[in-house]
């Protein structure tokens, strides 16, 4: 899980939110399936649920956060690159600088949740 989260962080890393969305839009533009393949930790979590037959609150939390993350990114991509209608407050957020540690939040959040899910 840690390696998959590091992969996702590396694939999405950019200086601004717009840069992140631009990278993800590149995959989305090729195919929405490529976009979904850029989130392998989600599929790993599904695999762990099936193999271990554990679907507790921690697993549900991981899956919920992952699903929300992917679909929120899709909605941002549609608003920014397809509809080209961006609310003013979102336009300002797109230019904010993202600290490099921000991309490691998934590494700090999902593996511990998975650990608690497996021991619980």
From TrEMBL:
Keywords: Membrane, Transmembrane, Transmembrane helix. The chain crosses the membrane at residues 31-51, 57-77, 98-119. This is Uncharacterized protein. The lineage of its organism: unclassified sequences, metagenomes, ecological metagenomes.
């Amino acid at each position: 899980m840690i390696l998959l989260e590091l992969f996702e962080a590396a694939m999405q890393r950019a200086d601004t939110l717009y840069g992140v969305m631009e990278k993800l839009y590149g995959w989305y533009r090729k195919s929405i399936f490529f976009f979904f393949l850029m989130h392998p930790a989600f599929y790993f979590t599904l695999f762990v649920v099936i193999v271990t037959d554990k679907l507790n609150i921690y697993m549900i939390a991981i899956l919920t956060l992952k699903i929300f993350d992917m679909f929120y990114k899709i909605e941002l991509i549609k608003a920014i690159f397809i509809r080209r209608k961006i609310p003013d407050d979102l336009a300002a957020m797109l230019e904010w600088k993202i600290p490099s540690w921000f991309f490691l939040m998934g590494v700090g959040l999902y593996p511990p949740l998975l650990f608690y899910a497996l021991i619980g």
